[in-house]
Design brief:
Elements: E1 2-6, H1 13-24, E2 28-30, H2 31-40, H3 44-53, H4 61-72, E3 81-84, H5 90-103, E4 109-114, H6 117-131, H7 138-152, H8 155-161, E5 165-169, H9 174-185
Parallel strand pairs: 1-3, 1-4, 2-3, 4-5
Helix pairs in contact: 1-9, 2-3, 4-5
Bound molecules: adenosine-5'-triphosphate (ATP) and magnesium ion.
The site of magnesium ion has 4 residues, from α1.
Amino acid sequence: MRLLIMGPQGVGKGTQAALLSEHYGIPAISTGDIFRYNIKNKTELGVEALKYIDKGELVPDELTNKIVKDRLAMDDAKNGWILDGYPRNASQVEALDAILADLNTPLDAVVALDAEHDVLMERMKKRAEIEGRSDDTPEAIAKRLDVYAKETAPLLATYEERGLLKTFNGVGSVEEIQSTIVAELG
Ligand SMILES: Nc1ncnc2c1ncn2[C@@H]1O[C@H](COP(=O)(O)OP(=O)(O)OP(=O)(O)O)[C@@H](O)[C@H]1O
Ligand SMILES: [Mg+2]
């Protein structure tokens, strides 16, 4: 099973991706987590990525595409994966298309989660208190939401046209949402 999970900040992508990963026995790959891991370990990539992340901006495509290409080529990704946080703009969609064509592995579905603005803001506020992510400042959050609306949300139409999009309500219990997704994906 090869899946993308998409939706605005705070909608629950990471949570649902982890459960889908367990259910299907495939790795959940989050570009945000990969960047945070590199930041924590002060790698060259981490130092570069941090410049953008703390401002709520996208890390440059060249860097991000390379990370995804390398990650999807790893052994544990042979039988499937779920990508969380990628692609985020039209050029990343193109890059992913090329990566998948190379690997000869088409996408099975795009899981989109949806919730109202107020719900997202409330969840992010809570998460900021608990996790203390450095990009959960009001300025960075506003920027991330703006980038999402302008660059990422339009990609849903792209995958809809390809017949891959499945949209789910991101409001409800974690288990409820999970079983709805699994029932739909099979
Ligand atoms: N595909 C990507 N392209 C460019 N930058 C990315 C990409 N994925 C992650 N990043 C960088 O990492 C940051 C954190 O991403 P992450 O997906 O963890 O958080 P998010 O967008 O706030 O979503 P969520 O609230 O669901 O965790 C982004 O704001 C961006 O700077
Ligand atoms: Mg996340």
